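ok trying this again, last paste got cut off
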Amino acid sequence: MKKIKAEWCERILAGMSIFEIERLIPMFLSVDAGNSNIVFGFNQDQSDSWDKVLRIETTKKLSVFQLERALGIFFLENRMEPENVKHIGLSTVVPDLKPILMQCCINFFGVEPYFINGSSYEKLRVKTSNPDEIGTDLMANITAAYDCFGDACIVVDFGTALTFSIVDKTGKVIGINIVPGIKTAINSLFTDTARLPKVSLEMPPSVLGKDTVHAIQAGIFYGYTGLVRGMLHAIEAETQTKFKVIATGGLSAVMQHLTGEFAMVDVNLTLKGIQQITLINRKKG
């Protein structure tokens, strides 16, 4: 059960149920549109909870109507009200999705989203010398991570690409590394070879493959475990800095052998960063 603020206690005393009250609490919507998925994350009253999340596969033929239909079903299933969404932050690394998502939000919620771009970072604690080159999703990750620790951080994002975003203790972004993601690597084996099968994203029980599926899983997952550890070691060795390492992305939970490397695993880190960047710019803009 979520914690209800004192301002809502009077409503409870007036006979309203907690469920009825939660339907009235204002919501923030973070939209993270990537190459594989569009994620709609809903946050109530700036709490730390992001338990209402809708994922829609990114496709070339995606339309405003399809998005509105998916949102309508999601809201009915979760007994949510579109008019409770008061603010929307939008991050996308797929330029063609911007007008579709903007129009969908205006139609469905009656709210024009704040579109995160290079000029959005001027008011943040974190700084980058290449604001128009770094992905808005990566800046959202860095913003949320630095806000949490206030110290030198590396954000490892297990998405379509495996990215390492490095920020020093002053909040300056000092580097980004990009590697093909785990799912991308598996799909390339399946699509670019004649006889290798498509395999599930599961950590195998052994590094020694006993059949074709097991062999691919062992190569990918143990290989990426070594890659991540090696990259973190190389970054710290070159910078002579000990970083707080934060993992995020949909596949971060699959890499069990890496949990000891991370100070925190937060699959909602990007959604939180989008919210923070949006609210800072809305407030001061």
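PB: full thing came through this time. The chain has a mean pLDDT of 88.
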